[in-house]
Amino acid sequence: MHMCIPTQRIPKKAAVQDRLNEQEGVPSVFNPPPSRPLQVNTADHRIYSYVVSRPQPRGLLGWGYYLIMLPFRFTYYTILDIFRFALRFIRPDPRSRVTDPVGDIVSFMHSFEEKYGRAHPVFYQGTYSQALNDAKRELRFLLVYLHGDDHQDSDEFCRNTLCAPEVISLINTRMLFWACSTNKPEGYRVSQALRENTYPFLAMIMLKDRRMTVVGRLEGLIQPDDLINQLTFIMDANQTYLVSERLEREERNQTQVLRQQQDEAYLASLRADQEKERKKREERERKRRKEEEVQQQKLAEERRRRNLQEEKERKLECLPPEPSPDDPESVKIIFKLPNDSRVERRFHFSQSLTVIHDFLFSLKESPEKFQIEANFPRRVLPCIPSEEWPNPPTLQEAGLSHTEVLFVQDLTDE
Predict the structure, then answer these.
(1) CATH topology for 330-410?
(2) Closest among 208, 203, 189, 197 to 41, alpha carbons compared
(3) In order along the chain (414 residues), what is the average pLDDT of each group of 10 residues?
(4) Where in this chain does the record put each UBX domain (predicted)?
(5) What's 25-54+92-255's CATH class?
(6) In whole angstroms, what is the distance from residue 54 CA to residue 73 CA?
């Protein structure tokens, strides 16, 4: 007997949503701020619930067997529940401690394939939280299957329904599929969040109103065609939420891209302005250094000229007095300067050629660096100490006559 029950389950919906919110980092709906009363938003939140009940007894024999076994079943399950309840106080359920959630998933996958073969929907190989995050990021439906190892319908459901080719095709192409046994800590933790009533249990989860929300619950032994119809119905009924979310994401992405482009344009403009300012600073600095260099050159030139003038004056003061014209040891020398001017002076034969050089150096119109040449024979007079002439010769030793014409050659630019 099939029972289709789309109901408004407010307490269960709030509980399921709360556990999902914990996975998404959203504050719990059961722990509001103390100053505000407890409020659970259930507007437009409906969980589609589809429950397949077990077939009722048929015929006199069937009802007779059912009535005979009813007390035994009631007693068995009552005692089992009491035993489990008491056991919780003695020894906590080991499934409540999740130490290796991925290991739980992989272990269930291996046991499933050993029992039912490798033809099955693609299992999500990750934790429940990771599956929620991927479904949220990819905007896909997430189908969660909780496997009850001890339930009488689990084996038939896995073998005939879950492994049916048409079911495999639908699940693999339109949703993520996460599955685990409730005997595993990871599966048990998820079962506490989803709070299934019976097995086999399937829950369809999707991003709805920006929260991961259970939008469908399928419980009981469902046949392949029926499962396909129910999954398709749930997806069709909620597809608009995913479409809306995709549009919002695209709009946010476009806004983000536009903002990024604006930021990049602003940064480019800022860098261009900074580059212009840097070049201006460099140009100002270059001009300043150039001006300082020119000023330093001017100061250096002034110091050089001042030192040169002082040296000329010192040389002039140190010159020996000029001999008289009637002195038989005197030499009359006419100097031809580079500017075509002439200078005449008398010197003594016994004086060194250095005196001639000092005299010319002291003249205002003489070059800074020069040499003195005689014409007959043409030669350069050694007026300055050198390696060849450490002590320059006297005028007589240089072979000068009583009257000489000497030429001053400018060596300043050499």
Answers:
(1) Ubiquitin-like (UB roll) (3.10.20)
(2) 208
(3) 40 44 41 31 56 65 68 70 62 62 93 95 94 94 94 93 97 96 92 89 92 92 95 94 89 90 92 94 94 92 88 88 90 91 93 91 87 88 87 90 91 76
(4) 326-408
(5) alpha beta
(6) 15
